[in-house]
Specification:
Elements lengths: L1 H22 L7 E3 L1 E2 L13 H4 L8 E4 L10 E8 L2 E9 L21 E7 L7 E7 L4 E6 L18 E2 L7 E7 L2 E9 L10 E12 L4 E5 L15 E7 L7 E15 L7 E16 L4 E7 L27 H4 L8 E2 L2 E2 L12 E10 L4 E10 L7 E12 L3 E13 L6 E15 L4 E13 L6 E13 L4 E10 L16 E11 L9 E14 L6 E14 L4 E9 L5 E2 L9 E2 L3 E9 L6 E12 L4 E12 L4 E27 L2 E5 L13 E3 L6 H4 L10 E26 L2 E24 L2 E4 L8 E18 L2 E16 L15 H8 L5 E9 L2 E2 L1
Parallel strand pairs: 1-14, 2-4
Antiparallel strand pairs: 3-13, 4-5, 5-11, 6-7, 6-12, 7-8, 8-9, 10-11, 12-13, 12-14, 15-16, 15-45, 15-46, 16-17, 17-20, 18-19, 20-21, 21-22, 22-23, 23-24, 24-25, 25-26, 26-27, 27-28, 28-29, 29-30, 30-31, 31-34, 32-33, 34-35, 35-36, 36-37, 37-38, 37-40, 38-39, 40-41, 41-42, 41-43, 43-44, 44-45
Length: 852
């Protein structure tokens, strides 16, 4: 029945895709020639040199938003020069209302609410990767690496960023803007050393220009890439020709740093007293161009003091929480190492340095003239600058034709064994492919991977496999995929990668549709609908894990408001959860139904509000609600504010509480003081309990863990409450000087009642006399304040203050019990949070870039 559904959906997807293909015209051809600069140019925002007058002009920009296709409401002219070791871009941006040009200051790489111009170059003409250089009307710079995807558009409200762009890449380049009575002008100089391109005598690059006018809600492009084709955005660029006699330049940068730090916290030996310590350190980063298209990056004793704190979260699942990488060395250029593995990835750089400070790390990356991209990453960590844990990654990817590719990856981890004797090693290898055909509109993508770990507990080894094959329909009003995922129960890449769960075989399909081809209709500027369905069975024994399906849609009104709707069904036909018991077998989880709505106000305004609500109902009566409110405000040209308030609560949700050991002797039943297996308990670790005469019946047909001992999961009806208030603010004094604040106040509390023991995968037995309690609360306040001054290109001074208060309150599982932490009110938690002894870290960091 389920397989038949997938086949029917896949057939419908193919029919819809063919229909869309027949109606989807190819993009128009856009070509501009660069002009050789035979004179010295001064980058001052005035395009008054004679060479600008005779250069080719790119004009005739077309709107992407609010209505796709019409000419831009404001004229734009762009010219490109080359020479003197650089590429130059000059843009004249006419405006009927020069006083309305928005000139909001912001930090570098902050795509804020302002008038923007962005030039993108596919300098390899590989139709996959482009370098982006943007400047807003206040002179703020934005640079990024853009991959082939682009999402639905080139950027939304302030702070949303640009889909498909990685702004962690930072080049050293120069720009100036000028306001004029007719609008504004931009002049940009990009040294060849900041780009990678071939050494051919005559070259053609891909090129794309974007202009944003926020007061009109307008985004215009040259060339216009239709919304239905944006999954292949870079492939649809125009062409920049006429580049003759240029050769790549070596990029050599040395960035040493010095850092001083003072840390204050509560004295561990004298509670309530202040303890402090300080240190001074040095380190550095090196970037070397080892040829026209090969770069070596190295770092010694890196410092990440200016990096924002990870947010506090309430995680009551069986799975690890993964956080975004923010450390500059690991985010810059990391796209070449990316290897998606279903719900995870084979490289998760947050593993590096998680257990000990990083001693040193290197990256070697490049691309050959034949289209082979490669990357090597190595890192070592250890306390007191003594290498102890080692990480290695090797990645290659070969371009096949204009759009297809295939590649491979290998990762290595070596560290002391978990038992303390010898070493443990983890090796993971994989191959991936993305083969596209029929003018890049269809593709077969997938991967195959093997993991091998040795030196685990008791010298054990473990080997596992995983893979996927998806058939995908890409551009067009109809998009989607059908696929098969397979993850073995012993596949584990998590020493270097990230994978939340394994042991499943999944049949998946997704369909996306741009209503009316992404064009306006009725009261809507555009609308899209997406469905996703997955049916899973366990890899190890074929147990049905259930089917999950969701339907979501986004509707943008002509007033630039946006409405998002979603509904989802979890296991509507039943299914088993093999992870909830934390290793003690499957559990037949309840069916669930979820729905949500999200609204966004007019994105043309200087402020934006996004409320959202969600509701979940389970078949066993459990319920959950969520509410959120997000806001952004550009308070003038120098101050931007954003905040979010999220609240979630659950009532009566059946969930795992603990795995407990029960013992039976001649006097009755006992329970282990700690929630561990009988192997980890001795005779003194048990206490007698009053079971109400039910445990004999509960365990009558349950296989014991050992004679006289039962080790079983205990479930309860869970109630939780959580509140998350996050505030961000940036004060920009100049494009190179800013003050940024991040602060999160987080509270959570919960309790379990009406306990039950899992007898077998289908039955939970009531055990109201369970002698333990599982009540908890958690409070956290953490803040970062960063003053950043880029006193010269590529060199910066950081002043950082990090402040944290954190406390856990967990009820003693066994009596005597005091007041339950769950019964504390929100006001109590807030007040008590500010009574927690704080930890403060003060950092001053100075780095300087030597550019050769």
């Amino acid at each position: 029945m389920v397989l038949r559904r997938f086949l029917v959906v896949g057939l419908c997807l193919g029919i819809g895709a063919n229909a869309a293909l027949a109606q989807s015209p190819g993009p128009a051809s856009y070509v501009i020639n660069a002009t050789a600069a035979d004179e010295s140019l001064v980058v001052d925002g005035h395009l008054d040199e004679a060479v600008w007058k005779r250069a080719d002009v790119a004009t005739g920009f077309l709107q992407f938003e609010p209505t796709e296709g019409p000419p831009s409401s404001q004229r734009t002219e762009v010219r490109v020069l080359y020479g003197n070791g650089s590429i130059y871009v000059g843009a004249v941006l006419f405006d009927d209302d020069p006083a309305g040009i928005e000139r909001a200051l912001g930090r570098r790489d902050e795509y804020n609410r302002a008038d923007w111009f962005i030039a993108s170059f596919d300098s390899y003409l590989d139709r996959r990767t482009a370098y982006m250089f943007g400047v807003n009307a206040a002179g703020v710079q934005y640079d990024a690496i853009r991959t082939s995807g682009g999402g639905g558009g080139p950027g939304g409200p302030a702070g949303d960023g640009i889909p498909g762009a990685d702004p962690s890449w930072d080049a050293i380049w120069h720009s100036e803007v000028r306001l004029t009575p007719q609008g504004w002008t931009i002049e940009i100089r990009i040294p060849y050393s900041m780009l990678r391109f071939s050494d051919a005598e005559s070259q053609t690059w891909g090129v794309h220009f974007l202009r944003r006018i926020p007061r009109l809600g307008e985004l215009s492009e040259w060339p216009l890439v239709p919304r239905t084709d944006r999954a292949n955005l870079v492939a649809r660029f125009g062409e920049l020709g006429g580049i003759d006699g240029v050769s790549p330049r070596r990029n050599l940068q040395l960035r040493p740093y010095t850092v001083g730090q003072i840390r204050t916290e509560e004295d561990a030996d004298e509670p309530g007293a202040l303890a402090s310590d300080g240190n001074f350190d040095v380190g550095g980063d090196l970037k070397v161009g080892l040829g026209p298209n090969v770069t070596l990056d190295a770092t010694i004793n890196p410092d990440f003091g200016q990096v924002e704190s990870d947010p506090a979260v309430l995680n009551l699942t069986a799975f690890e929480t993964f956080f975004d990488e923010r450390r500059p060395f690991f985010v810059e250029g990391i796209q070449i190492y990316q290897f998606s593995a279903g719900p995870g990835a084979l490289l998760y750089t947050r593993r590096i340095g998680a257990d000990a400070p990083i001693v040193g790390a290197t990256k070697l990356s490049g691309r050959t003239a034949e289209g082979l991209s490669f990357g090597l990453l190595g890192a070592t960590t250890g306390q007191n600058f003594e290498p102890d844990q080692h990480y290695g990654v090797a990645r290659v990817s070969r371009q096949i034709g204009d759009f297809s590719s295939a590649g491979a990856i290998g990762t290595l981890f070596n560290a002391p064994s978990l038992g303390g004797n010898g070493r443990r090693t983890s090796v993971v290898g994989g191959a991936d492919w993305d083969i596209r055909f029929l003018d890049n509109r269809y593709g077969i993508e997938g991967f195959a991977s093997v993991s091998h770990r040795q030196g685990l507990q008791n010298g054990e080894t473990e080997t596992g496999v995983a893979g996927k094959v998806w058939l995908r329909r890409r551009p067009g009003a109809w998009k989607g995929f059908v696929g098969l995922d397979v993850f073995g129960d012993t596949f584990n890449p998590n020493d270097v990668g990230q994978l939340g769960f394994n042991n499943f075989v999944g049949l998946l399909n997704s369909i996306e549709h741009d209503v009316n081809g992404g064009q306006p209709f009725g009261p809507f500027l555009r609308a899209s609908v997406e469905t996703f369905t997955i049916q899973q069975i366990s890899f190890s024994d074929g147990l049905n894990q259930g089917i999950s399906s969701d339907l979501s849609s986004t509707w943008t009104l002509r007033g630039f408001q946006e409405i998002g709707l979603s509904i989802a069904a979890e296991h509507p036909f039943g299914g088993y959860d093999i992870f909830e018991t934390r290793g003690l077998g499957p559990w037949k989880s309840p069916r669930g139904f979820e729905m949500g709505i999200e609204i966004q106000t007019d994105s043309r305004r200087s402020w934006l509000i996004e409320p959202e609500v969600g509701f979940l109902r389970n078949s066993d009566g459990g319920r959950a609600w969520s509410m959120g409110l997000r806001g952004e405000w550009n308070a003038g040209t120098r101050l931007s504010l954003s905040s979010s308030l999220d609240a979630e609560w659950e009532d009566g949700v059946t969930a795992w509480s603990s795995n407990e050991t029960f013992a039976r002797d001649e006097d009755g039943w006992l329970i282990g003081r700690d929630a561990v297996s009988p192997d980890d308990l001795d005779e003194s670790a048990y206490v007698p309990i009053e079971d109400g005469g039910v445990l004999d019946n509960i365990f009558a047909d349950v296989e014991p863990f050992a004679p006289g001992f039962w080790y079983r999961p205990v479930f309860g009806e869970r109630d939780t409450r959580s509140v998350d208030l996050t505030v961000r603010s940036t004060v920009t004094f100049a494009p190179t000087l800013s003050l940024q604040l991040y602060s999160q106040l987080f509270f959570a509390r919960g309790r379990y009642e009406d306990f039950k023991i899992l007898r077998d995968e289908d039955r939970l037995a009531d055990f109201s006399s369970f002698p333990k309690r599982d009540d908890f609360s958690f409070s956290s306040l953490q803040s970062n304040l960063v003053l950043r001054w880029e006193y010269r290109p590529g060199s910066a001074l950081f002043l950082v203050w990090t402040h944290g208060r954190r406390a856990d309150d967990v009820l003693n599982p066994l009596a005597p019990w005091g007041r339950s932490p769950y019964e504390r009110g929100l006001g109590d938690q807030i007040g008590n949070t500010f009574d927690i002894f704080p930890t403060n870290v003060f950092v001053i960091k100075l780095d300087y870039t030597f550019l050769y």
